Amino acid sequence: MRALIVLAHPEQQSFNAHLAEQTRQSWRAQGHDAAILDLYGEDFDPREGRWHYALSKDAERFDPMQAQRHHWDQQQLPADIARHVNLLLQADALVLHFPFWWFGAPAMLKGWMDRVFVYGGLYKSGMRHENGAMRGKRALLVSTAGSSMQACAPDGRDGDMRLMLWPLMNALHYIGFDVLEPHLIHGVRGGLAADTARQQDDRLARQVLEYQAKLAQWEEWPSVPFNRNEDFTDGQTLRPNAPVYSPFVRHREHA
Ligand SMILES: Cc1cc2nc3c(=O)[nH]c(=O)nc-3n(C[C@H](O)[C@H](O)[C@H](O)COP(=O)(O)O)c2cc1C
Predict the structure, then answer these.
(1) Please, what sign has the CA dihedral across residues 186, 192, 197, 199?
(2) Are 73 and 146 found together in one domain?
(3) Are residues 220 and 244 both part of a single domain?
(4) Rounded distance, CA 195 to CA 201, Å?
(5) Ligand 1 contact, 147 CB (< 6 A)
(6) pTM for the whole structure
(7) Would the CB of 143 count as within 6 Å of ligand 1?
């Protein structure tokens, strides 16, 4: 098995970089292949834009979706995007490591998805969700928050962190991944006094061990449920008797 580990953190010595390295080592210890794609490390440009594309189909107006599809069809994707797409297509598992920034993923990670989940190649009509390009492969989000577990709970002051990550998980599901329950580590804070920092280090060391133990049981890691194609009328509207797995896709309330 092969894992692609994507790291979206600007600092090599960050806790997130450390976690990504733990994922790589755990994966290798199990006899699998694992490589880290360090987005900041390779100065990835997360901005989609016309300047990336050699073949300009329409000089007047840049259409990102059409540019992606055309360059995929012509095998003329920007070199870094072609490399990342290949890594993705060859991987059996994708692990995304990132800090929770402003209630979501850092722009670097979002931009990576904008550019690497190429229209025409990784998704198109008839090639989405359970028929997606990445079907049969698993994806996991591993994210850290500065706030406490209580504050990030469904009734917490910051709001439900897992729910806020749902749009990201939905994107992974959209291109066909079986998405695993995200692994969230809370209360990761900098600028602490020496004693408190030591206590935090001890706690995080324990949490890393727990994470590694879960990785060792990768096959048992639970998936996030999503509605299937047959749960929708014309592929669009949730059928009245269909199950609801997320407040993002729910039945309309009848007064
Ligand atoms: C731009 C920015 C936005 C942040 N937004 C949040 C947030 O919305 N919720 C939260 O709990 N922590 C937030 N934090 C704190 C980070 O999640 C925390 O610093 C990080 O998880 C620590 O991991 P690291 O040591 O690998 O950077 C934010 C930090 C930065 C720099």
Answers:
(1) negative
(2) yes
(3) no
(4) 10
(5) yes
(6) 0.97
(7) no
Residues 178 and 233 grouped into a single domain? no
Q: Whose CA is nearest to atom 28 of ligand 1?
A: 101
Q: pLDDT of the chain along its 255 residues, tens only?
A: 999 999 999 999 999 999 999 999 999 999 999 999 999 999 999 999 999 999 976 668 999 999 999 999 999 999 999 999 999 999 999 999 999 999 999 999 999 999 999 999 999 999 999 999 999 999 999 999 999 999 999 999 999 999 999 999 999 999 999 999 999 999 999 999 999 999 999 999 999 999 999 999 999 999 999 999 999 999 899 999 999 999 999 999 864
Structural domains in the chain (count)? 2
Residues 82 and 171 in one domain: yes
- 154 with 238, same domain? no
Measured from the CB, is residue 145 less than 6 Å from ligand 1? yes
Which CATH number goes with the domain that contains 197? 3.40.50.360
State whether the beta carbon of 62 lies less than 6 angstroms from ligand 1: no
> Position of tokens 């949490």?
207
Q: Give 190 Cα–ligand 1 centroid separation in angstroms.
A: 9
Check whether residue 125 and residue 235 sit in a common domain. Answer: no
CA of 25 to the centre of ligand 1 (A): 25
Instruction: Locate 108 and state its tokens.
Output: 């670097």
What residues make up the domain containing 32? 2-224
Whether the CB of 168 sits within 6 Å of ligand 1: no
Cβ-Cβ contacts under 8 Å for 46 (sequence gap 6 or more): 39, 107, 108, 109, 110, 111, 112, 114, 115
* Same domain for 217 and 254: no
Please state, in angstroms and as integers, the Cα–Cα distance from residue 83 to each residue in 50, 78, 88, 165, 226, following that order. 19, 9, 9, 26, 29
Residues 125 and 199 in one domain: yes
